[in-house]
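User: Last request for today: this protein with zinc ion, please.
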Amino acid sequence: MIDIDVLAIGAHPDDVEMSAGGTIAKLVREGKRVAVVDCTRGEMGTRGTATQRDGEAQRASEILGIHARENLNMQDGNIEQSEENIRKVISVLRKYRPAIVIMPPEHERHPDHEAVHRLCRTAYFQSGLTKVETHDSGTEQKPHRPKHMFCYMQSYHFEPQFFVDITETQEVKIQSVLAFSTQVHVPGTTSSNEPETFISRPGFMELLEVRARYFGEQIGVRYAEGFTAVKPIGVHSMSVWLE
Ligand SMILES: [Zn+2]
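Assistant: Here's the final one, the structure of the complex with zinc ion:
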């Protein structure tokens, strides 16, 4: 059992960096404890091998400064809503005991992203049930239900419910994404011989920048990331905006 403030879950190594890297780097700078869980090793990816992506995830974790990262070894390209996969997610929720989970959105271009959204929703609920038993290294885990579940944005646009100012960590986010050098175009390098994908085009990095810039503009800062909440969100008083 490791107490973590925020747990970020992604289908593939690099999903979390691209979608919420700035928010995570900022939490770490504020002294919060953040863990990342990747559901697959990305072994079905068009470019790079699973081993290369393990190394890239390790480098990206160091750049973001997160406290833990692990891989659930689900089947890339075919993440099933199986009892086994639900248990794997429950197990990490109970191990890290986060107050906040950040996860993929409901409607997405890649079916694995949607699958992880559904797994998180089911696991979130079941994780709070005493009668659902899970074990970590032979020890029975205690129930845990995080306070909040927030979805980051991937390929498809949705209207965010709130934005996080990432002006001071946008550059760290970009560096963490560039750590996945088999997946994205790294400026100044010759293009690889591997087939081009949606995210390996030079234009993809531009898209990350443009979106963060546009979201920043929405709240009067330079860069921001947008999120939506699974559960309705409220504040204890309007005074939170009088800071
Ligand atoms: Zn992905």
